[in-house]
Amino acid sequence: MTIVFLVIGAVSLCVGSVHIDFDHVLRYLAKALKGNFAITSQEELIIFSVRLPRIIFAGIVGASLSLGGVIFQALLRNPLADPYVLGISGGSALGAIVGIVTGAGSFYLGIPLLAFLGALATVFLVFVVAGGTRGPLLDNSLLLSGVVVNAFFSAAILFFLSVVNSMELHSITFWLMGDLSRASMEEISLTAFCLIAGFVFLYAQARKLNLLVQGEETALHLGVNVERTKQWLLIVTSLITAVAVSLAGIIGFVGIMVPHLMRLVFGSDHRLLLPAAALFGACFLVVADTLARVVLTPAELPVGVITALCGAPYFIFLLKRKAP
Fold it and tell me: Quick one: which of 64, 44, 68, 66 has its CA closest to 56?
C-alpha cells in the first residue's frame, strides 16, 4: 500500500493544467533527495510549491477520514457509520465557520479548536437524540440521528453563509465542498502531527477494538473497560476528523468506502485494518484530488464533488446489501 501511494503521488505530480514528463519528475525528486532544493525551472516550481504539498495534504486528510470511518464502524458495529454520515464533519465545519466569521483565525489554532469542539458536540447530540443515554443503541436510530443533526448543522451553516460578505462567500462555499488547494507547510505539519499521534493511540487500542466488535459484554468479560475505551476513542477520532475538516472542508464518503473495502480485502483485524485503511484512504483522496484538478482544466472542481460521485452509489449499495 505504501508503494501504491508513492506511485500514485508520482503520477499525480505529472498531470495538471501543465503536463510534466514522468522522467523529469523523477529527476527533480532525486535532485531534492540529494539535498539540492534550489528551484531553477518553472516545472520545479510547480512540483515543489504547488503539487507536492497538495498531494501530501490530500494523503494526510484521506488517511484521517479513513481512520475515523474505521473507528466509528467498529464502535457502532455498523458499516454505514462514518464521520460524514453521523454529522461529525458537519459539526466540525460549523465550528470552523463560526471561527472564520468571528475572526478566531487570528489566534493560533483558533479555527481547529472550534472545529474540534463542534465535533465533540456532534457526538454528544447524536448519542442523545438516538437514545444512547437510555439503553443500547440501534443502527437505524444512530443513522437517523446523524441525518437529523446534519440537517440542523447544514441550516446553521447556511445562516452563517447568508451573513458573511460577498468576498468571503465564494471561498467558504468552495471550502465546504472540500478544498485542498490552500495547503501550506503549517497546515500540513498540524494535520500530520494530529494524524501520527492519533494513529499511534488508535493502533495501541487495536486489540480492544477487535473485542468491542465482538460485543461490549464479551469485551467487558475479557478485561476491557468498555466505557472509558469508547470515550477515549471518540475523543481522539473526533480530534483527527475535526483538524482535517477545519483545514480541508467537508469531504464525504471517504470514511464509508475505504474501511469497508479494506475489510473485504484484509479482514476485520484492526492491527492490519487501521494501517491499510489509512494508506488506501490517502491513495483514494490523492486520486480524487487529481481528477478534481484535471477534469475541468484549467478550472478546478472541489474534491468533495469527486468523492460524493464515488461514495453516494457505494453508500446505496451498502444500504441495499444490509437491508433484510
Answer: 64
Is the model's pTM score more than 0.70?
A: yes
Cis preceding-peptide flag for 112 (omega within 30 of 0) = no
Give yes or no for a contact between 53 and 95, defined as CB atoms under 8 angstroms apart: no
Cell of 10: 508520482
Where does residue 310 rank: exposed (0-12), middle (13-18), buried (19+ CB within 10 A)? middle
* Domain assignments of the chain as residue spans, ordered by start: 2-322
CA proximity to 288, closest of 269, 319, 310, 273: 310
Burial of 206 (0-12, 13-18, 19+ CB in 10 A): middle
- Cβ 276 vs Cβ 262: under 8 Å: yes
Summarised one tens digit per residue, pLDDT across range 145-194 is 878 888 888 888 888 888 777 666 666 776 677 778 777 788 788 889 99
Q: How far is C-alpha 96 from the chain's CA centre? A: 15
pLDDT range class, residue 287, cuts 50, 70, 90: very high
Q: Cell 527533480 sits at which residue?
A: 28
3-state helix, strand and coil shares in percent for the chain, rounded to the nearest 5: 75, 0, 25
Residue 133 pLDDT more than 60? Answer: no
The Cα–Cα gap between 10 and 204 comes to 32
Cis before residue 298, ω within 30 degrees of 0?
yes
- Provide the Cα torsion 216, 218, 221, 226; round to 10°: -20
Write the CA distances from 152 to 87, 90, 125, 284, integer angstroms.
10, 9, 11, 29
Could you give the CA distance from residue 38 to residue 208 in angstroms, rounded to a whole number?
48
Q: Are 242 and 34 in contact (CB under 8 A)?
A: no
Write down the architecture of domain 2-322 according to CATH: Orthogonal Bundle (1.10)
pLDDT for the residue numbered 197:
95
